[in-house]
Every structure is written in structure tokens, then in C-alpha cells.
Write a structure and sequence with these properties.
The protein is mainly beta. Helix content is about 5%, strand content about 40%. Strands 1, 2, 3, 4 and 9 form a 5-stranded antiparallel sheet that branches. The two termini are about 15 Å apart.
Length: about 140
């Protein structure tokens, strides 16, 4: 009898996460499967919703628009700051730096432009504004 993923199940999945261009940015292949508890908010909700109803061994591909993943890019998270704010980090375009947030957690920002006295950083999530493609395979319902 086929076992079907239901809310509350713990499942092992393999996934390949890609951009629309096909470029892979993350994958569990060649590693241990990802273990998630369905209904516990451990992954992007649309992925969790897709897994519900899948059978062990089943494979699905889903397209996730930005608003159902990491949201749109927010212009207020792109800002200019003086070089001295970087401390002794040498500014380089594409460099990812850690900055303190208002909540006390560190956020990762990317240097996107360098001027003589300042740098422009983008503190949006690295996947914000991007449409994502996930290949999902239910390996086992635990």
C-alpha cells in the first residue's frame, strides 16, 4: 500500500533548488536526505504544501514565485555606508559581510557598489526577488 505524506508526518526528502535559468544553488543529492516535520513551518510553506499528498518515491517539480519564497527585493534594504563602517574589511564588489540587525541577529549583506568614500550594500535575503524551481523527491515517510 502506498504511503502518502500527511500533515504531522516526519519525512525524508531530496531536493534540487534552482533559479529559472537552471543554475543550481542548493541540493541534497549526494548527502543525507533532509528531514522535515510537515506542519511545523520548517521550510517554505509552498514546499510543505506540495509534499502533502505525495507518495514515497514520488518526484515533483514546482515553480515558486518570489512572493511565496523570500519576498520581493526591498529598496530600503539597499543602502550606502562609509568605508570605515566596514572596519578592516577591504571592500570588494560581491563580498558578503555580516552586519548586526535591530533585533540583535546578524544579517548578511552584499557589497554591490564601491565609491571612493562609501560602499553600497544590499541587505535583502540573497534569494529575495527571485523565482525558484525545486525538484522534490519523497524518500521516506518516517
Amino acid at each position: 500500500m502506498d504511503r502518502i505524506v500527511q500533515n504531522g508526518n516526519t519525512v525524508k526528502i531530496h531536493y534540487i533548488a534552482k533559479f529559472e535559468s537552471g543554475e543550481v544553488f542548493e541540493s541534497s543529492l549526494g548527502k543525507k536526505p533532509l528531514i522535515i516535520r510537515i506542519g511545523h513551518g520548517e521550510i517554505i510553506p509552498i514546499i510543505e504544501q506540495t509534499l502533502v499528498g505525495m507518495k514515497e518515491g514520488e518526484i515533483k517539480t514546482i515553480l515558486i514565485p518570489p512572493e511565496k519564497a523570500y519576498g520581493p527585493k526591498k529598496s530600503e534594504l539597499i543602502m550606502e555606508m562609509p568605508h570605515k563602517a566596514l572596519g578592516n574589511i577591504a571592500p570588494k564588489k560581491g563580498l558578503k559581510i555580516k552586519l548586526p540587525s535591530q533585533t540583535g541577529k546578524e544579517i548578511i549583506a552584499e557589497i554591490i557598489d564601491i565609491k571612493p568614500e562609501s560602499v553600497t550594500i544590499d541587505a535583502n535575503h540573497l534569494l529575495a526577488g527571485k523565482t525558484l524551481v525545486y525538484d522534490l523527491k519523497v524518500v521516506e515517510i518516517v
